[in-house]
């Protein structure tokens, strides 16, 4: 039987008799079907399109127009949705502006960027796929090779905050893969393509192709290509609901990293966890607003302590109102019977981030299959992964980590096989090929082999 304490800033759920339903409810609210659009977004849709379109309809309209009109549609929607009056030449950030931003940047900030880049390079280099060749029989050589993508596009958000970390976590893995061309798009806002820290980071990483556009129109431009922004082969990076829906819409024309939704974390904690640490981690995730922050524990006292800490720490946050709303809408403190139930609930939710704050976190992670990124121990907050550890912070959300994986160097490699048979090796395998081809009625296939096996 579930019970709730309405006086808390976050929902309390006694799930010792169940619990799946509350996680299912949260998952539905966080899905694209939840229609997470701000009131301002709805007003803007009405103003631009003249009617209250759904987010899917907005994206379909924008993508269709950019596909058919190219740069004029990209500029038109950039003005209508972002209020930026740009021309085709001014869409791209000049090299001088990138250099000026770098020159004006805080030297300590740039040192941090370099250290983080090195962390990412070290990890991504270690996990990069290498070609594999086997020679199972004389005259047979089979290779699985990995080739870097030619050109990729990166979406960098810029609505409520600037995200130089996203540039690092997307561009550096692509560079390690060997991608030759990287285009960065960011909305024409003070937090986006006019943000000095973001531009300085691009310059530090050697990224020269940065564009002042965002939203569904930028995704469509990168997918279909236009005079001002040549098409890419893959689009990666986070964004709001419209960016996510646009990436889904253009998938198939180009590849995408994932269909990402609001950020989410599950914290598994026992009696050894610090309530202050747990509260800080929940607040960090809720700060994305929307962001889902869930504690699962089998210790009632910890829930009481975390509730107190949440209220205390909330008062000190810059974005406390937004965080409070996110906790109320997408947060939960869930009491379960034991660690086994905690692991089962976590697996069913399949969170983007999983933080295990228990005495023996390595034991619990072995019981959990589904998480985008896992963080073990009391002193491994998710923020380490968000900013500096080495793995990318671009991760599958919405339960998709049951089958999807986070962005990595290998996301930018295209895998393909290379087969080579000598004459005698072809003759040896020919009967099997011919037999199956004839069974399937594909006699031309069979002949393409038999004609060689019969040749002198």
TrEMBL record:
CDD domains: Histidinol_dh. The active site is at 352 (proton acceptor), 353 (proton acceptor). Binds 1 zinc ion per subunit. It catalyses: L-histidinol + 2 NAD(+) + H2O = L-histidine + 2 NADH + 3 H(+). The keyword Transport does not apply. Its cofactor is Zn(2+). Keywords: Amino-acid biosynthesis, Histidine biosynthesis, Metal-binding, NAD, Oxidoreductase, Zinc. Pfam families: Histidinol_dh (PF00815). One of its GO terms (biological process) is L-histidine biosynthetic process. Pathway: Amino-acid biosynthesis; L-histidine biosynthesis; L-histidine from 5-phospho-alpha-D-ribose 1-diphosphate: step 9/9. The keyword Protein transport does not apply. GO terms for molecular function: histidinol dehydrogenase activity; NAD binding; zinc ion binding. Substrate binds at residues 263, 285, 288, 353, 386, 440, 445. One of its GO terms (cellular component) is cytosol. Its EC number is 1.1.1.23. Zn(2+) binds at residues 285, 288, 386, 445. It comes from the Bacteria. Catalyzes the sequential NAD-dependent oxidations of L-histidinol to L-histidinaldehyde and then to L-histidine. Belongs to the histidinol dehydrogenase family. This is Histidinol dehydrogenase. The lineage of its organism: Bacteria, Pseudomonadati, Planctomycetota, Planctomycetia, Pirellulales. The gene is hisD.
